[in-house]
Amino acid sequence: MTEEKDKLSIERRVVMVVDIRSSTSMLDDLKQTDNLAVWRNLLINQKQLIFGHYAFSRVEIYKFIGDGWILLFPEDIKRSEMLDFLGEISRQFDMNYDLVKDFLQRRPPKVGLTFGIDSGELIKLEMNEQTEYIGRAINVAARLQGFAKDLPSSEDYQAVFSKHSFNQMMGVHKDKLNVQEVKASLRNIVGGEIECFAYSPL
Description:
By secondary structure, the protein is an alpha+beta fold. The protein has one domain (9-199): 2-Layer Sandwich (Alpha-Beta Plaits), CATH 3.30.70. The chain is built from five helices and eight strands, in the order βααββαββαβαββ. Strands 1, 2, 3, 4, 5, 6, 7 and 8 form an eight-stranded mixed β-sheet that branches. The model has no long low-confidence stretch (mean pLDDT 87).
């Protein structure tokens, strides 16, 4: 348990918040037909994919949040690594969804993953025998994930990077990528509106 006398532990990380589109409606649908095990297996498969990904040494699964995850990456992750990761887990989710769709009574209008990505300093501490992180980057990444879902042109698989996090990643120049510059209005975030890049992994 972290105490007041302990030295402040600060880490710089890239934070990704991942969410499954239409999870609430799919879960409710599967519950109606007593097929919740199908949803559980989808989540297990997706977590195993993240653990088994070639870049696992570069990814920390910080927290499961019901229908998604908060993932932490080192500050020096390259842009190509991040985009490869987004593409791979999107393709795998697309295949995993095949295990679910036959059990659904109604197909939601959008099925896929949305991502919010930011970077910055996080305070690391221990609470109730668990490692916890607090910091603006987690809050911003969570808001960007919600913004990705609500973009008018949003694809089934949609990522939104804060401009800051995208530009700090070295590698492929943004002009060679299919990214769209957007401004996100983020509630309860100081500054409110930030410049971002929207990217579709599939």
